[in-house]
């Protein structure tokens, strides 16, 4: 779960891409620019304004994530059995879980060194951009952002740390809950974790 926390915290803190006509090279260039901007936001934290700075970084990055697609991948085959209302509830609760659980650690990476690799990979409609992130005084971590173009920008739908996929980690947990309690049981479990 430690890798999951790192995955989500860094992905929410760093990822934000907006492109009109995208190529892998443009995605790399834009990710470099946006990661610098988010790190600049985080560096404004001075303990008394940590919550405000963190929210500013979240608000900058969150629109560039496709939480519906992330939830669909995390739920797996059971997604097809969910009603539209259940899909909406699952997406909202999963989004809340990711943000609440991991955004608090975002400020730990405000002095990180981020190197975006030039060799992005295109697979069908998706582009995978790799970043090497080294927290101050820490060991480098390799992250792969999988994204697709939507409405003139790229939206992330999966993040992997050292090859461990965020949605795959949650899929195992979600499938166990659905097998025991059904889709509504998973929604309720997520609501309980989110305090709603």
Q: Output the radius of gyration.
A: 17 Å
Low-pLDDT stretches are 15-21
Number of DSSP strands?
Answer: 7
The level of helicity is 40-55%
Largest sheet: 7 strands, antiparallel
The first-level CATH class is given as: Alpha Beta
| Beta fraction | 15-25%
Can you tell me the CATH topology? Nuclear Transport Factor 2, Chain: A
Q: Mean pLDDT, rounded to whole units?
A: 84
Following the backbone from N to C, one meets helices and strands in this order, namely HEHHHHEEEEEEH
CATH-scheme architecture = Roll
- Termini gap: 22 Å
What does this structure look like?
With 196 residues, the protein is an alpha+beta fold. It has a single domain (22-193), classed as Roll (Nuclear Transport Factor 2, Chain: A). Helix content is 52%, strand content 20%. It is built from six helices and seven strands; from the N terminus they run αβααααββββββα. Strands 1, 2, 3, 4, 5, 6 and 7 form a seven-stranded antiparallel sheet that branches. β6 (153-161) and β7 form a beta hairpin. α4 (67-75) packs across α5 and α5 (84-102) crosses α6 (166-194). The protein is globular, with a radius of gyration of 17 Å. Residues 15-21 have low confidence and may be disordered.
